[in-house]
Amino acid sequence: MPICNQRTVIITGAGGGLGRAYALAFAAEGASVVVNDIRLEAAEAVAAEAVAAGGRAIANQGDITTMAGAQSIVDAAVAAYGEVHVLVNNAGILRDRMFISLSEDDWDQVMRVHLKGHFCLANILGRRWRDAAKAGKKIDARIINTSSGAGLQGSIGQSNYSAAKGGIASLTLVQAAEMGRYGVTVNALAPAARTSMTESAMPDVVKAPQDGSFDAWAAENVAPLVVWLGSLASSHVTGKVFESQGGRISLGDGWRTDATRDKGARWEPAELGPVIDQLLAEAVPAQKVWGS
Questions:
Q1: Within the chain, how many helices (H) and strands (E) appear?
Q2: Other C-beta atoms lying within 10 Å of the C-beta of residue 145
Q3: d(CA 61, CA 56)
Q4: pTM above 0.90, yes or no
Q5: Packing angle of the helix pair 159-179, 117-134 (nearest 10 deg)
Q6: Residue 147 lies in domain
Q7: What is the pLDDT of residue 200?
Q8: Residues 123 and 143: beta-carbon distance below 8 Å
Q9: Rounded to whole angstroms, how far apart are CA atoms 94 and 157?
Q10: Which residues of the chain have pLDDT under 50?
Q11: Count: domains in the chain
Q12: What is the DSSP letter of 231?
């Protein structure tokens, strides 16, 4: 039995790469899929591919970075399938430069697509699900956000992208804490796969093997986790950040209070040096920033 029967999912940035893999995998598991991408022809091609394989899908090019655009996406999904049960915030862009070489537009564009793009649809659907829950309807909804290793550990040459993806990880924690009472789970994914973004940033690393061995960078490897998170089976999992690449799945362990000293009074600046050194010696070392 397909695990997403009678569920409708909106996937942003689904005209290629990871989004395409998610769309096809959701459709294969019985979901009705809204393939959203600003490139309408790409969205239409993925939707047609899903339908040709026996699934249900429509294409949509609504703007995820405005409330009006996001509302139009939700309206299209409801008109086609009656309700929305899952949102996969996947769309993203890169504007990679060293920090002091970034322009204002480099910063603003990445924040707009990633952070505001994660806000608009989730806010509209969250209010829809809240109102339905308050009206007595049972809600079993999912938001799946997209963070990144760059957001969890940082990445040289990607300060704007890292800041946005780190913000998405924090956003996920707050959404999960606030929206659980309405029957909504919220998790994030830090995927590693071959996409147009990673091919432009590290083409030699993500290239497909030529010897027929397992393709650890194929986007299709990440899709099963996303589909499971969108299913009814994942209702007990919320507020988590998963990392996925190839056959590997792990939980990201974020900011937490580590080694501590409490004087019970105000510290003097001159006495803090040894205290900080002790804290650093006892703390769990952070993973290195990518590229360092």
A1: 11, 8
A2: 24
A3: 17
A4: yes
A5: 0
A6: 8-251
A7: 65
A8: no
A9: 11
A10: none
A11: 1
A12: S
197: left (phi over 0), alpha (psi -120 to 50) or beta: alpha
Which listed residue (147, 155, 162, 165) is catalytic? 165
| Contact indicator for 114, 161 with CB cutoff of 8 Å | yes
Report strand pairing: 184-191 vs 141-146. parallel
Domain membership flag for residue 88: yes
Which of 32, 147, 148, 244 is flagged as catalytic? Answer: 148
Beta-bridge partner residues of 136: none
**Is residue 148 annotated as a catalytic residue, yes or no?**
yes
pLDDT at site 255: 85
Annotation marks residue 81 as catalytic: no
Task: Supply the CATH number for residue 190's domain.
Answer: 3.40.50.720
The token pair that represents 223 in the structure block: 């899709």
Q: Is residue 21 part of a domain?
A: yes
One of 161, 162, 240, 244 is an active-site residue; which one?
Answer: 161
Residue with tokens 């697509």: 113
Active site annotation includes 288: no
In a domain, residue 277? The reply is no
- The answer to the question of residue 87 being in a domain is yes
- Our measurement of the distance from residue 57's CA atom to the centroid of its chain's CA atoms, rounded to an integer in Å, reads 21
Residue 109 structure tokens:
């564009």
Angle 281-156-214 (CA atoms, 0-180°, nearest 5)?
A: 95
